[in-house]
Amino acid sequence: MSSIKITTNDSQEGSLKVAFATTDLENIDSHFGSAKQFAVYEISKSATTMCEIKKVLEKDTDKAVALLEGIDIVYFTNVGAIAAAKLINNGIFTIKYKEIVGIEEEIKKLKDMLNSNPPPFIKKIIEKKAS
Amino acid sequence: MSKETYHQLFKKYDLYRSDIYLLCEEKPAEILFLFDEVCEELSKPVAINNQLPKEFVQSAKSFTSQNTFTNVYFAEISNRAFFLSDLIDFLALIKSKKTT
Q1: Which of B29, B30, B68 sits opposite A109 (nearest CB)?
Q2: Which CATH architecture has domain A2-102+110-120?
Q3: Model ipTM?
């Protein structure tokens, strides 16, 4: 496993760290277990930063979950039961999209949500990070 | 949803009913996938779904149609458990009404 940091930005206040399983860095189009890479974005009310591309070099669920340490939400097209349990137990929220969705489009929606009425658990994540 | 599917689902709900919150901690993936399956069923345009409060069907449709807010809300396993628990209670009411 390896991680390529594209930029080194300071963590934005009130932000979410979100990973997208993607083959082309444009769409959420990979199964968690077979994902070769995760595009990591930091999303706040005012800004979005692509901060990392986490490369998966070995097919190993435990290592893939460990690779996502510090991530709040991970998006993919599907996931196996064991991997799902491990992600949840590691405090990573999982979102499955059966149909391929554009990353940019999803980020915009998340950002709109942060600026309007985020669910309580999102508020908790943000509060926990701020403390 | 056919009557057979309805009864099968009810049995499944009933199986989890007593310890659905414990399952959240011990087997979260079961809640994750059970919720997915239930939403698929609730989204089907069949008569039995019309007997349920519209909030169940609307939430399920919103989830299966990949609404971001709904998907993010249900990324929290306990929110899935709340939904399933409420649905189980309602299904139990329908069932008891039919048998009395």
Answers
A1: B68
A2: 2-Layer Sandwich (3.30)
A3: 0.77
